[in-house]
Design a protein that fits this description.
alpha/beta; five-stranded parallel sheet; 19 helices; binds adenosine-5'-monophosphate-propyl ester
Length: 632
């Protein structure tokens, strides 16, 4: 097993070692895994191109290290514990032995259906064990999985299927989420109707048993093709740098990018970070509430915990069903030891009142995690007092889809915690703050742009099908550095606080959204002439979506607003729906025609005291009009 740090001295020592001799440090960690043939070099890199390789020429299979490796010592221990949406329905468990058998059966079925190494398989599924089993089955045979969050629209799904030229979609019939029954397979059918020529098969898991349109040529039932397979399947020999998965995420321009992660480095880093950030101990029950449709679910529901031989819980439902005590009821029911969630969920549950957590025995909790967005002080304090009762350190973990694993975080029982501070870099991670010209801001008590200096094993390798975009977005802003897109500050003692995005990406309830993407969706409405989208502070969601819209030929009423929300839901999904829409007659623009988003952000945030000099705008008068309109 990878090192588990247990004291501050050890952290400091290891951190030093990991930066003075990264290859030695990561080589040692990597050698704790099973390799079918050993790597002959630890790291080779060049951020100009970029070209990053870890554990060169090593051959392994991540599922061997997640499953087979544990069978001898913990074959009968629970690997996945599944809590269904309905609190009265049966919990499901898979021991390591059972999970290996289930993965192998699914892997054999995929092979039988013509899926092989390098083929792309899209998942559009709720949080059922089959989602974890299916992704692991892909990894078993070297197929590349790409999970699309099941809240995205048919159009968004089709875009991702086509970008990845996937051969197969794996979905469920329906998804029971809270009191809603969502027709998942119907969305897949709608996506196919938009045109997904590469799809040869749709594998349907029967989740609720509701009626679906069964297409005899494309569709196959999971229970028909998976259940009868052999439970033995040799793992494919994967090169360290073979692709493991693609995960789409939003950027500041254009369509979502397919972030590519590879087998070896991702394996080493997710296991190492999981063991240290959550201080997982034998017998603990670990629960991350994320959806596997996001990176948090990939790294810290599936891969990290299983690599570490942990018991990882998957929850199908939502925090407020059947009531606002659900999370805490589950913590009590399963005696959860490590609990990992997003600030937006904490704020939403905090707003429901202290009486909800007070009803439950939360004494099993040892570590509380936060991820996805900055956590405000009030939410941090509530989490600490009402959930952890002051006994469970909060790990405010900063990272990104692109980083693959947690980068900056306190380590419970090892380093201190401070509200709103992600605090300290993980061993092997070298964050720096730079000014806009790329000069490193040395010392403490500084504020700047967050970059990472040296590669780490789980960093993205490319953007699927568009390496140039990978270079432009992450490696061209500053020489020899990975640019995160975030702004951050260091306190007097060097702890890091991540403030938020400095680009045109907004973070709504911990979900990343490109303003350009939302604008493109709004602009699909035939009566919209132009739009500009910005984020603004929102009590529960962290940031809300504020859309300024220029339209023609329509009454500016609620019916029109509804139509716009409908278009956004159709183009992206309900998570991208603007919280506020303001109709305007123009947008503030520079003389070269660029929208001055800075001004729009200030107006949306109701912070117009210092708008700066607007006289150089092409249309300075519009600012007054928009400010007036915002009041109404
Ligand atoms: O702005 C940062 C914010 O979320 C962005 C990454 O989003 P995504 O790729 O969807 O991954 C989310 C889950 C890892 C970052 O650029 N972010 C994430 N965690 C934190 C955070 N901002 C502040 N504090 C955090 N702990």
């Amino acid at each position: 097993m990878t090192t588990q740090i247990s004291s501050l001295e050890e952290y400091q020592q290891l951190y030093k070692e990991s930066t003075s001799d990264p290859e030695g440090f990561w080589g040692k960690q990597a050698n704790t895994f099973t390799w079918f043939s050993p790597f002959d070099k630890v790291c080779e890199w060049n951020f100009e191109e970029p070209r990053v390789k870890w554990f060169l020429n090593g051959k392994t299979n991540i599922t061997y290290n997640c499953l087979d490796r544990h069978i001898a010592t913990k074959g009968d221990q629970t690997a996945i514990l599944w809590e269904p949406n309905d609190p009265n329905a049966a919990v499901q468990t898979y021991t390591y032995k059972e999970l290996l058998a289930a993965v192998n059966k699914c892997a054999n079925a995929l092979k039988e259906m013509g899926i092989g190494k390098g083929d792309r398989v899209i998942f559009y599924m709720p949080m059922t064990p089959e989602l974890a089993i299916g992704t692991l089955a892909c990894a078993r045979i070297g197929a590349i999985h790409s999970v699309v969050f099941a809240g995205f629209s048919a159009k968004a799904l089709a875009d991702r299927v086509n970008d990845a030229t996937a051969k197969m979609i794996i979905c469920s019939d329906y998804n029971q989420r809270g009191s809603k029954n969502i027709p998942v397979k119907q969305v897949v059918d709608d996506a196919l109707a938009l045109g997904c020529p590469s799809i040869e098969t749709v594998l349907v898991h029967q989740n609720t048993g509701g009626d679906i349109n069964f297409n005899e040529t494309l569709d196959k039932w999971w229970h028909d093709v998976v259940d009868a397979q052999s439970d033995q399947c040799e793992p494919e020999q994967m090169d360290s740098e073979d692709m493991l998965f693609i995960l789409y995420t939003s950027g500041s321009t254009g369509k979502p990018k397919g972030v590519v992660h590879t087998c070896g480095g991702y394996m080493v880093y997710t296991c190492f970070s999981f063991r240290n950030v959550f201080q997982y101990k034998e017998g603990d029950v670990y629960w991350c509430t994320a959806d596997i449709g996001w990176i948090t679910g990939h790294s810290y529901i599936v891969y990290g915990p299983l690599l570490a031989g942990a018991t990882t819980m998957m929850f199908e439902g939502v925090p407020t069903f059947p009531d606002a005590g659900r999370f805490w009821a589950i913590c009590e029911k399963h005696k959860v030891n490590q609990f990992y969630t997003a600030p937006t969920a904490i704020r939403a549950l905090m707003a429901k009142g202290d009486e909800w957590p007070a009803k439950y025995d939360l004494s099993s909790l040892k570590v509380l995690g936060s991820v996805g967005e900055p956590i405000n002080e009030e939410a941090w304090n509530w989490y600490n007092e009402h959930i952890g009762k002051g006994n469970a350190p909060i790990v405010d973990t900063w990272w990104q889809t692109e980083t693959g694993g947690i980068m900056i975080t306190p380590l419970p029982g090892v380093t201190d915690t401070k509200p709103t501070y992600a605090s300290y870099p993980m061993p092997g991670i070298q964050p720096v703050l730079v000014d806009k010209d790329g000069n490193e801001l040395a010392g403490n008590n500084v504020e700047g742009l967050l970059c990472i200096k040296h590669p780490w094993p789980s960093m993205l390798r490319t953007v699927y099908g568009d390496h140039k975009r990978c270079q432009n977005v992450y490696f061209s802003a500053f020489k020899n550095m990975y640019f995160t897109g975030d702004g951050a500050r260091k306190d007097e003692e060097g702890r890091i606080r991540v403030i938020g995005r400095v680009d045109d990406v907004i973070n709504v309830s911990g979900h990343r959204m490109g303003t350009a993407e939302v604008e493109n969706a709004i602009n699909e409405h035939p009566n919209v002439v132009e739009s500009a989208v910005v984020g603004y502070p929102h009590d529960i969601k962290g940031q809300g979506i504020y859309a300024y819209i220029i339209s023609q030929g329509k009454d500016l009423d609620d019916a029109f607003r509804k139509e716009i929300l409908g278009v956004v839901t159709e183009e992206i999904g309900p998570i991208a729906k603007p919280d506020k829409i303001q109709f305007v007659s123009g947008l503030p623009k520079t003389r070269s025609g660029k929208i001055m988003r800075r001004i729009l952000r200030k107006i949306a945030s109701n912070d117009t005291s210092n708008l700066g000099d607007v006289s150089t705008l092409l249309n300075p008068d519009i600012v007054e009009e928009i400010m007036e309109g915002a009041k109404g």
